[in-house]
Amino acid sequence: MTAMDEAKITKKKRAYSNFSSWSICFVASLFFFYEIVQLTVFNTISGDLTRTFSLSTLQLSRLSACYLYACAAFLLPAGLLLDRFSTKKLLAIACGLCAIGTGLIPTASTVEVATLGRILTGIGNTIAFLGCMRLATRWFPANKIALAMSLSVTIGMSGGIFSQTPFALLVKITGWQQAMFINAAIGGIITLLIIFIVKDTPASHTPQNSHINRIIPTGFFESLKKASSKSQNWLCGLYTGLLNLPVMMIGALWGNLYLTQGRGFSAMQAGNITSLIFLGLIIGAPLMGWISDKINSRRKPMLISSCAIFLVILAIIYLSLPTAALSVLFFLFGVLSGSQVLSYPIVSKSNPPHLESTSLALVAIIVNMGGAVSQLLFGWLVNLKWDGLMENGIPIHTLSAYQFALIMLPLAFLISLLAAALIHDAYPRSSSEIDYASTTGIAS
Predict the structure, then answer these.
(1) What's the pLDDT score for residue 285?
(2) pLDDT(143) > 90
(3) Residue 418 and residue 432: Cα distance in Å, rounded?
(4) How is 259-286 classified by DSSP, letter by letter?
(5) First vs last Cα of the chain: how many Å apart?
(6) Residues 193, 20: Cα–Cα separation, whole Å
(7) What is the pTM of this model?
(8) What CATH number is given to the structural domain containing 326?
(9) In 44-69, which positions are buried (b, 16+ CB within 10 angstroms) versus exposed (e)?
(10) What is the largest CA-CA distance in the chain?
(11) Boundaries of domain holding 410
(12) Mean pLDDT of all residues in 344-373
């Protein structure tokens, strides 16, 4: 065999390896996409759920928030499982559970069964995101890991766009229950793709256990105790959770009802406008990372974003705007909320290696618990102003009721400004640290 023949074979092997790496991470990212659909799909079918299960706004909030409670409860166990068992098997099991949970909701005759389905989908979210990150670090060289993670996040967050107008069109054609069955079937297909395509590691991969070995002697609870004792971790968690509220409150549950009942938009218009939050977030997260790199500061973009998003939400709440202007504001809402990702590299830099993962998990738990509490609080506040008006089995709330509940958002952004002001700007030493931490900050 000539040197040229060997070079061709090597080139083909490298091309096949690259194709395998991208294929595996793409399939894993489809599960992350699917989970974001489940997180946000209640925004599209909120009226149908309310009518079918005879729910009040507070009960709808509780049902939706079960996803986030389950996610928060299983974040730390998910990390432990991924450290010890096959990523592929855990992804397949989690995706299968998520598909089953999604299928339970349209078949449920009681809200308790629907709640169980919601909990199963929330459990899957923890494995989906962490599994994507794990596979990226195993299948790509160091100079491509950040790109792989960024693309996984982009694919995942596009699920928030799919769950709005496209899913609303599907609901309009088939009805909400049939649409959810199709949704569940998609989960089953992704599960099969994971089983047949995803692999844990390349053949040449040698497990690097040095990081795990540093953690195990410290002890899980001791690591959690030390991570919890750092005010920097709590401040970053608070900031990230508050800047994530546009997704958790408006994008995931209340956006469509606010726009249809409070502002008089059609369901399709509401879906289009709400989806712009996710489009803005997809653009805003890497944009904020790029800006922070250019000015050598995480804290400054965080402070500016808190101020700007405060003004944007006031305009959304109190100004009567045409569709185009409101669409621009919702897009800016998403772009500015992208600054939430800057907390993660600060946490990574502020903690020793043996506390980094635990500290990041702590931040993710705060984010999910904050989202769950905000959904419940919003439902409770709207319900306080309800005058008992019903239409087709759905409680109808006035614009003033929604404005009363939405006031919690500008207050939250003022608190985020205070949190950002108290955070120490621990800027990373290298661009690789920046890229890795920034790409792991969304929708945990």
Answers:
(1) 81
(2) no
(3) 29
(4) IIIIT---HHHHHHHHHHHHHHHHHHHH
(5) 51
(6) 13
(7) 0.77
(8) 1.20.1250.20
(9) bbbbbbbbbbebebbbbbbbbbbbbb
(10) 84
(11) 220-444
(12) 79
The verdict on 64 and 158 lying in the same domain is: yes
Structure tokens, 135: 């596979």
Which residues lie closer than 8 Å to 23 by C-beta, 6 or more apart? 197
Number of domains comprising the chain: 2
Per-residue model confidence (pLDDT) at position 37 = 95
Whether residue 164 is found in the same domain as residue 242: no
Residue length, the chain? 444
397 close to 385: Cβ distance less than 8 angstroms: yes
Q: What string of DSSP letters covers 43-92? A: HHHHHHHHHHTT--HHHHHHHHHHHHHHHHHHHHHHHHHHHHS-HHHHHH
pLDDT at site 426 = 64
Q: How far apart are CA 183 and CA 192, in angstroms?
A: 15
Contact 72, 372 (CB under 8 A): yes
Which tens digits make up the pLDDT trace of 43-73? 899 989 999 999 988 899 999 999 999 988 8
pLDDT in tens, 154-193: 788 889 999 988 999 999 999 999 999 999 999 999 999 9
pLDDT tens digits, one per residue of 302-343: 999 999 999 999 999 999 899 999 999 999 999 999 888 888
Two tokens, residue 13: 């092997």
Angstrom distance (rounded) from CA 103 to CA 285:
32
d(CA 309, CA 304): 9
